[in-house]
Amino acid sequence: MKHDILIADDDEHLREVLDLMFQDSFNIHFAETGQETIDAIQKHHFHFVILDIHLPGKSGIQICREISKLEIACQPQIVILSADSNEKLVREAYELGVGDYICKPFNVTAFKERMLRFSRDIDKIKELENKDGDIKGMAETAMLQAASYGSGLELISRLNNCRTPKSLAKEIMSHLYHKGFHTAVQLRSHSKVYSFDVDVSDCSDIELQIFDLLKTHGRIYHFGKRSIFNDEHVSILVKNMPLAGTRSYDALLDLAAKLVPAVNARFISLCEHHALLETKAALGKAIALVAENVAKMEKEKREMMQAIESKVAMSFHQLHMDEEQEQYFVELIENEIRRCETTEYLDDIQSSIAECMKFLEDVDESDHHDKDDDPDINHDIELF
Asked: The pTM is what?
């Protein structure tokens, strides 16, 4: 790419010589007076200005002062070309930031090579600036991704402490809300669907329709300014997606790629836990019923044995036995009745019931402990 160069000199012959020298290497512009030079610099960005120190109207020193007031990115590289070699003037020019001060007469070849070297130096500096910008961009992206990954790990850790679908959805929406994203979350088990919205708690009919239509449209589905992230049992609807290609957009995609499977796994775990609790409750009722019936059977058996013993004892006098015979049969019947009262299988049942009840009590105590730790179970917490 050719650089733009402004040649500011009132010597027409010198302008023609410089034009011949540089027309193949630069885009050349000319100015003959100091004011023309200043006006040209203010209207157009030049990479170089070849400047005579004594121009009509304003001197080269005055022009250098005007250029020094511009923003650094807009300041051209100045090369003074003058027959005046006054030491004080040269020092002042360098103090104002000129790149070189060349006295007339000058070697044409050496001057051309010097300008070409300046041009290559500018290209190298520009290349380094671009690389530096790329490196800074890559570093910022890496830092943003690291921060997103770290916050994602913290979120997943908090999800493992959730005990209800509501607290699970709340944790997700709260995390994304603090990052500037408004979301809705749907959790689906085999028997129930839970839907929550960060802004209004309950999802609108439109959002419910979106979940129903798009929950099977792949892991990520974009539509308009919204995107939905899906897994088998969870969908997260982001209602204000960043523009595609931005760092925020890439960071959100990276976070969602890790978040959605983790939420899906945690929700499955919650469903299994709740199923276990329901099974525990049903088993507890069944065991209590068995224990009640076993106790009732024991009572009825004892009452029946006592009645038989009483009837047998009262009927001995009808058999015309002597006292010794009567005593013998009484002891025989009593021993058999006492033996029948002890039934090993009923004892085993009662022992098994006692063990089951102890297990259910332990599970119940553990569940109560979890509820004490999680305020979402004991309290009705509003979503935002």
From this structure: 0.48
